[in-house]
Amino acid sequence: EAVWQRVWAAESPSSLRFGAAVGASSTVAMVLLFGLAGFIAAWGGLVDIEHDDPNLYLFQVFKTKGEVGQARVDSWIEVMVLVVAAAMNEGSIDSAQNGLISLATSMLQVGSSPFLPRLFVVVVTVPVVFLALQGYQVLSIFLVTNMACTCVFPALVAGAWDTPIGRRLVTEGVFLSSIAGSSATVTLYGIGRNWKAAWGGWHNIAYGAWHAWAGNEYAWDYFAVAALAGAGWMALAGFLSSALSFAKPCTSRCASMCACRTAPDLDDEAELLRETAEDCTPTIK
Q: Which of 16, 110, 128, 220 is most buried, by the most CB atoms less than 10 A from its CB?
């Protein structure tokens, strides 16, 4: 997970691809392993369907027999496993902070002071500490972050389309539009799915929004809506951005470069990138 969190502060495209591949494959493997342990616990009759949290079936493996109630630790190896699991969970916060500092520092000019990125991380951490002291269920907090990551994922993947066409279609505005559209869509889905005629309008809106982001108990349909909506908004925003860019007239400072261009003039990729950087869409005859 620490490798995955540092991917976006990579020093080169090759390092980014390598880090993304290692981080993604390692995360998938670990999630598959822990999920399989939950299935094994259920298969072995160690899960109490009525009382156990479905998200915590993994820890029922530590039971020695099928009994009602939460899992109990009764051997030293189980104690060690729980200690290591808790340390890994708590230790992920420093990886996230280091990743934020590295990412923010990489955006500054070479030789700039890292004071501002460090200050930014401190400012971000303060509300996180306040939130941790409120006693919210950790799985609900994880659900919020998981839903947010699902909304961002389609735009993030599209941003890796490192070609001239990709750079033209996936702009900053398209990226933000996809995230905003996906977030709004999944919120509206939660409101519509949980709407009750007996409740008032504002009550329905508040409950539906909460259920979409923190109360759906990891229902698959919310994640599907977030991912599909993100991809749909990305495609729509990219199409509109591309259409507007081609319809935009040449500016005075690049009119001479745009006038009467022909298709062969656009064959060279470097020329196309230079013209795009000059904020000029060439006219093809």
A: 16
